[in-house]
Each structure stands twice: as C-alpha cells, then as structure tokens.
C-alpha cells in the first residue's frame, strides 16, 4: 500500500471541514437572458454604386448582445445568396450601418439577427431592396418621379424667361411690381421644394445629377438676389430684391432652415454661411419684451408663433450641424417661450401671435390673437421632436405627440377616394403651404415613434391629388383642393406649387426609407 503524503491529507481535511462549516458553495448567477429581442427600424436601400446596398437598423436594448449576423438571399430563383453571413460587433440600443456588395442587380431580402454572449440568436428581421444599375429600369420612388415632373413644369411655367431669373408669382403670368415676380415668401416656397427634391434624389444618380446641374447654382443665385442690408442693419432676405425693401423674420427663417438642411446634405460651406446670416438677423429680432420670442417683422409690434417656433427649429438644426451649444440653448428657450405664451392648453394647438396692449409700456397686458393655422402647430411639433432627439428628455416627445393628435383631428377630414378606391382622412381644403410646413413636424415625429398614421394620411392625400382631377394633366399643377372633382382652377400661385413639390419630395424620401 502506498503512503499518502501528509500535506495532501491536510488539504483534504481542510476541504471537508470547510464544506461542513459553510454548506454548498453557491455558483455565480447567470444574468444573460435566454431570449434576445430582434432589431428594429431595419432599412435596406441602393447606393449610387452598382450592386451595392446600404443596410441600417437599431439594435435592441440588451447589454448581453455582442454580434449581428447579416445575410442576403434573392427573392427570385437562379441567383446566389450570401455564401456566409457577415458578422459585426454591436452594442445595446446602438444604431448600426453596413454596406454590402451583392452579385446581381435583382431584388434581395436582407436578414439581420443579433446574438448575445451565450450564443442565443434573436428572431430574424428582414427588408427588401434592389441595387442600382444603369442597365435596369428607373427604380426611383414613384413620388420622386412625380416631384421631378412637377419641378420641370414649375421651371418652365414660372421661371424660364423671367426678368432677373426669379420666380413668377403666378401662372398664368401677370404683369405688376417687379414684372410679376414672387415675393420672398413665394420664392422661398419654391426654394424649399427644390431643397426637399435635392434631398430625395440623393440615392438616385440620374436625378441627383439632373438637379445639381440644372438647379443648384441657378436657384441659389436667384434667392441671393433678395439679400440686402437695409439701413445698415444685419444682412437678410428682403421681400423683393432691392436695398430699401423691408424684411420679415419668418420669411428669412424658412430660407435659413433650407440652407442648413442643404448644408447637412452636401457639407458645402456656402449653405451654412447663409444659414448663419439668417440666424444673425433673427437675433436682432429678439428682446425681453413680452418675456421673449421673435418679432414677425422688423420694427413690428407682434411676436408670432410663425417666427418663434421655426427660429427654434433653425437653432436646433444649427446645433446639429455645428455642435455649438449656444444654438441648442436658444432652441430650448424659444420653444419654452412659444409653448408657455401661445399654446392653447385645451387642445395643444397654437395661437397666432401676441402683442402688448400698450406699445409704449413694456409691462402692459398681453393681447393674444387666437387664430389657429396648420403651420403654427406643425413647427412646435417639429422643434419638440428635434429637442427629444437631441436631449432624450421624454416630455418633448409627449408634447410633440399631443400636438400631432390634435392637428390630425383638426386639419384632416374623412374622405372616400374614388381614385384610390379607399376611405381615409385627407387634408381639408386650405392653405397648401401651411399644410406643407405642418408635414415637416409629422415627419420629424414619425422618425422617432414610428407611428405611420399621419405620414400615411399625407401619402394618400398627395397620391389622390396627383391621380385625380386635382392635377391639371397638361401643366401638372395641382389645385388647392386635393380631393379633385371640384371647380377647375384657373390661376396657380407659386407658393402653393412649391408646397406641393415639397410634400411630394418629402414623400419620396420617406418612400426610399420604406414607408
């Protein structure tokens, strides 16, 4: 018999005593879940390169996830699928983006699965997309084609042959001040339509090239002609071209928002410089009277929702473009003022403006003009959504959703569309440009909460307008009543056509994103 060394006996005895003393030693608790939620907001789209797709999604809130598995397969037989899934690192709640090459120019189903540390996989999330190829048919969204058609018609009917190459106010053209040219409001409305169209065309090379070559320099020069430094004041866009023409703060803000949007799309400093010109002008339109806010016009006496809320939107977008906190602080304070001063607490919609009961006494009572217009609720909805996106503070999202629900109830009406063969709520006959500005708020909110109700109402509204008698089939200009079937319109304002162009173009962008 072999002898056991004393040291081993000692260790064995120690273990026995320990076990008897403390009981069974507890194993570490397994905190990794046995299920994994799937990814959300999966989008797949063609890039401007052949046989290439860009994929993006949001990962679930789960600290245990470590990988995402991406695969593709053709929706038709005869083409190859991905030989091996692509694996990338991911983190909880993050946004992921990936560009992949596919073997053919056909429609593919993209599949994304996330995997946790225990190797457990989520359910599949899928999206379909077809890569770009110059050899295949035009794959652009139908609303991009419609927007391009309207833009081509607008240039022909309102711009070509005009003195100074600035938009005519109406079609048929009429003589008048500045040869019938549009004021900056109408000119800016057309520019907003162009800016939205340029963004919508970003992923479609033929359209992108066309817009850049035909419109970029021409339209920038045209709107720059409205800039002046009236009476030595900060530079701004005047009602008409000319050194002595008056300037409105709200007119300028719409231009400034377009410019910062174009900067974020192109990264061209010429656009950011113009946005900052507008912002500098807006600062001159603010003071402590009535507690804050932005005046409607130079030397005016009212502070309006239509000047203050979009000024907050401009400030938030400038913050996104520059990361300078002074813009974010301005956005917050302007939104707080307009919410506290001009929001109707009974229905969350916004009144028009406020002024002092005695202009000579800054401490006199406030007098509120309580008219309600669609754009005056759309812009607070947009800035609330932007502030939620930037800060993550939940009250901003709730405030935007409250406005959206009330605006949808007020400015959409039940409609049975013979053209589309379905019933839905359509934009009521009203001020089309106001409705286009309101759409911006609904879009910003949709990108946060994914509620398609409101954007789908716009989609059906504009589809009905395009396909019904609301559109003149010769000129492609659109009536103010999107239901069609009404009296034939004989005159078309450039402001309203620019608004229609903007809505069609924004729908094209949403269509590209999967709406």
Automatic annotation (TrEMBL):
Q: Which Gene3D superfamilies match?
A: 1.50.10.20, Immunoglobulins
Tell me the ranges covered by the Fibronectin type-III domain, including all copies.
Answer: 38-136
Q: Which residues form a coiled coil?
A: none
Q: Name one Pfam family in it.
A: Glyco_hydro_76
For the biological process aspect of GO, one term held by this record is:
carbohydrate metabolic process
Q: Which PANTHER family match?
A: (PUTATIVE SECRETED PROTEIN)-RELATED (PTHR47791:SF4), MEIOTICALLY UP-REGULATED GENE 191 PROTEIN (PTHR47791)
Q: What is this protein called?
A: Alpha-1,6-mannanase
Per the UniProt entry, what species is this protein from, by scientific name? Pedobacter psychroterrae
Phylogenetic classification of the source organism: Bacteria, Pseudomonadati, Bacteroidota, Sphingobacteriia, Sphingobacteriales
């Amino acid at each position: 018999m072999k002898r056991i060394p004393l040291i081993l006996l000692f260790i064995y005895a120690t273990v026995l005593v320990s076990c008897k003393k403390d009981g069974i030693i507890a194993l570490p608790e397994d905190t990794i879940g046995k299920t994994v939620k799937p990814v959300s907001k999966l989008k797949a789209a063609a890039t401007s390169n052949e046989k290439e797709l860009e994929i993006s999604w949001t990962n679930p809130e789960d600290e245990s996830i470590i990988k995402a598995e991406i695969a593709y397969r053709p929706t038709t037989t005869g083409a190859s699928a991905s030989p091996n899934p692509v694996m990338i690192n991911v983190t909880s709640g993050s946004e992921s983006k990936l560009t992949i090459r596919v073997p053919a120019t056909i429609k593919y189903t993209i599949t994304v699965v996330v995997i946790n540390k225990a190797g457990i996989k989520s359910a599949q999330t899928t999206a379909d997309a077809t890569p770009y190829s110059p050899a295949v048919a035009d794959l652009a969204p139908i609303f991009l084609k419609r927007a391009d058609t309207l833009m081509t018609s607008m240039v022909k009917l309102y711009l070509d042959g005009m003195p100074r190459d600035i938009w005519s106010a109406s079609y048929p053209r009429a003589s008048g001040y500045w040869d019938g040219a549009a004021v900056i409001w109408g000119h800016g409305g057309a520019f907003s339509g162009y800016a939205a169209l340029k963004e919508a065309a970003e992923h479609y090379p033929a359209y992108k090239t066309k817009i850049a070559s035909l419109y970029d320099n021409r339209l920038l020069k045209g709107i720059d002609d409205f800039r002046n430094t009236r009476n030595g004041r900060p530079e701004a866009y005047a009602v008409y071209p000319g050194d002595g023409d008056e300037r409105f703060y709200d007119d300028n803000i719409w231009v400034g928002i377009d410019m910062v949007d174009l900067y974020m799309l192109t990264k061209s400093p010429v656009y950011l410089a113009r946005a900052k010109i507008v912002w500098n002008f807006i600062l001159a339109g603010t003071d402590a009277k009535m507690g804050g806010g932005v005046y409607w016009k130079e030397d005016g006496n009212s502070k309006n929702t239509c000047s203050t809320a979009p000024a907050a939107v401009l400030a938030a977008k400038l913050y996104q473009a520059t990361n300078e906190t002074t813009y974010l602080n301005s956005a917050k304070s302007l939104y707080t003022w307009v919410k506290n001063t001009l929001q109707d607490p009974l229905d969350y919609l916004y009144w028009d403006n406020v002024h002092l009961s005695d202009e000579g006494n800054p401490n006199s009572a406030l007098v509120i003009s309580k008219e309600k217009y669609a754009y005056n609720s759309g812009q607070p909805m947009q800035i609330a959504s932007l502030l939620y996106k930037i800060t993550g503070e939940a009250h901003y999202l709730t405030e935007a959703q409250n406005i959206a629900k009330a605006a949808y109830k007020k400015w959409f009406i039940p409609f049975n569309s013979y053209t589309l063969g379905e019933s839905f709520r359509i934009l009521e006959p009203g001020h089309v440009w106001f409705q286009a500005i309101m759409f911006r708020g609904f879009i910003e909110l949709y990108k946060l909460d994914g509620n398609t109700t409101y954007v789908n109402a716009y989609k059906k509204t504009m589809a009905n307008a395009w396909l019904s008698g609301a559109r003149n089939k010769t000129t492609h200009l659109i009536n103010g009543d999107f239901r069609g079937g009404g009296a034939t319109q004989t005159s078309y304002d450039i402001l309203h056509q620019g608004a229609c162009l903007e809505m069609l173009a924004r729908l094209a962008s949403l269509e590209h994103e999967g709406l």
